[in-house]
Amino acid sequence: MPASSPPDRGPPVRRQAVFLDRDGTLNVDLHYLKDPERLELHRGVGEGLRRLRAAGFLRLVVTNQSGVARGLYTAKDVEAIHARLVQKLAEEDASVDAFYYCPHAPEEGCACRKPEVGLFRQAARDWDLDLSRCAVLGDRYLDVEAGRRLGMLTAYVPEPGSEGEYLEERPRALAEADLVASSFLEAVDGILQRLARGSGNPAGLPVAQVARLGSTDQRTGAGRTGGTSPPV
Ligand SMILES: [Mg+2]
Ligand SMILES: [Zn+2]
3-class SS at 228? Predict the structure, then answer.
């Protein structure tokens, strides 16, 4: 065999993640939420996070929290919200792997407030990510923009119940996002169809099956057809 042949094992596979916005995406956006007791998850978030975990994706939260710079709450308050979020997810057997947040105000011009990509780059170093096989999922144009800057798959889910907000940015988000979904779960399934190792995955599992692994509760039946039967 010539010396230039690639080794049998190939290059190490870097990890995949879905970057999740927090307010308006995982939980109801109450605008500068300070009290952990008021935190409320959106429908389907627990199920969606379980599907991502089952398919081997890290779940990393990236959130702008300018309320810290504005003096509306402290870093400690942000940590308390995140602890509450972890607890509520655990009640649904769901989890995230890390939180990254920007505490700065827009006028500070930091490198970490979305749509700047500082936190995403930090996460990519922390977790050895292949960003070209990662996705961002959020309810605002700034989430889509950050994802596009890094060449990630972008999924836009306008927050249910907030149709009257952010109208001026919506056309850009609709036009530029790779996926537009009406719910968290629909966005997760779209991401898995595009990025799960299903398209050529070594185990040969259909994408839908990969997504379904680990979710044992009964299906709602929404939007999923039978498809290929998995090998038994
Ligand atoms: Mg948001
Ligand atoms: Zn910042």
Answer: coil
Active site residue 21: yes
Ligand 2 centroid distance, CA of 26 (Å):
20
Q: What is the pTM of this model?
A: 0.81
In a domain, 120, yes or no: yes
In this structure, is residue 118 part of a structural domain?
Answer: yes
Tokens of 165: 């907000």
pLDDT digits (tens, 9 = 90+) for 189-207: 999 999 997 543 333 344 4
User: Ligand 2 center to residue 225 CA distance, Å?
Assistant: 43
- Reference 99, options 188, 31, 21; nearest CA is 21
Active site residue 139: no
For residue 142, what are the domain limits?
A: 17-212
Report cis status (omega within 30 of 0) of the bond before 115.
yes
Nearest ligand to the C-alpha atom of residue 23: 1
